[in-house]
Amino acid sequence: MTATSGNAPQDAPVVITFGCRLNAYESAAMGELARAGGLTDAVIVNTCAVTAEAERQARQAIRRARRERPEAEIIVTGCAAQIDPARYAEMPEVDRVLGNKEKLEAASFAAGPIAAGHIAPVQVGDIMALTETAGHMLGGFEERTRAFVEIQQGCDHRCTFCIIPYGRGNNRSAPIGAIAGQVRTLVEGGYKEVVLTGVDIAGYGRDLPGAPSLGQLVRRLLAAVPGLARLRLSSLDPAAVDDDLLRAVAEEERLMPHLHLSLQAGDDLVLKRMKRRHGRAQAVALTGRLRALRPDIAFGADLIAGFPTESDQAFANTLALIDECGLAYLHVFPYSERPGTPAARMPPVPKPVRKARAKALRAAGETALRRFLDTRIGAREAVLVEAGGSGRTAHYAPIRLVGPAPRGAVVAAEVGAREGGTLVGRVR
What we know:
- The protein is of the alpha/beta class.
- The chain folds into three domains: 4-119, Methylthiotransferase, N-terminal domain (Rossmann fold, 3-Layer(aba) Sandwich); 128-374, tm_1862 like domain (pyruvate-formate lyase- activating enzyme); 380-427.
- Helix content is 34%, strand content 22%.
- It contains 13 helices and 19 strands.
- It has helices at 21-36, 52-68, 79-83, 85-89, 128-131, 164-168, 176-188, 214-224, 243-251, 268-274, 280-293, 312-325, 351-374, and strands spanning 4-5, 14-17, 42-47, 73-78, 96-97, 118-119, 146-150, 152-153, 172-173, 193-197, 230-233, 258-264, 298-305, 327-334, 380-385, 390-392, 398-402, 410-419, 422-427.
- A six-stranded mixed sheet has the order 1-2-3-4-5-6, sandwiched between helices.
């Protein structure tokens, strides 16, 4: 896991974020709420509970924050704090712990004395607590060129390796009108690209009247906000990609040709033991169908190396999936036991084997990315400009730009070369 933090003066609140795009989105909201509440010298650590390593890094960041800012108030929140608040409250560096609901409430960030190790009531959050702050959120993204919009919380599924539903609860979706209103506000604030995010966005809408699907949301959102130039989706469960979403991919040009799939493995027995809802053949068929609908589409995927009971052949099946699905971007995780999950009780793969398999997957991923980037040489790309004259193409390919490239703009660039894992293009 990678931590990110806002660059802030010593007397301004800083948010340190671990984990997913949803956490990044919520960190933007917390930074805004903290400033509005009058907090000055404070550090907010937004934790992740996906792996034990993510928690270790969060605790390390908390201790480092105390060393670097001894007078600051240290506030810990996020999924790890939601699941085990007492563990963080017991840390001498921590002043208060907030649950995933409380971290989105303005009252939680009011300045004032607080007892060390205080635990706010830890409950499962209500998504509308964040959606209703839409009009006040622009400041939280001012260092970014794209904005994240939370469309749902929680997950109705129980994969054997995952503890996140215990920190986020079951699926709860935001109404389409509220989402469109937030996106409209962001576009009016100058954003060219929005990423729809959540815990399980493919499960969007099942709890709403009429049960609108993710594909319906995409089409209605793009129609309601014609000024939005680029729309992206965060990680998708392949078992939940339906005809509505396939139609949106095929017909909506402003939906970027890049999808990230939560595949996790490429072996049917491992997928069954993970309690995933798709099989290997389904993953291969889905990427083939999507590519037929939109030939230039790029795929990313999450893959776990060394899941309990994974044999050499099972790992080989996962490795082969990279080429069979045409994956270009990989997020590889060596399996990490999470106490309280069914997978933690399964026969483990030795840790050195997990590490070696993760290394092999990453190497294959780097080769696949270079191969994909080579297909873009000579192409004319629309690039969303980020910091330092670099940016991302519609396919999410990193690109270094030669020529005038104002941050936050979408510019046309002619791709002339690849340097390692990055394209090089001249602005036209």
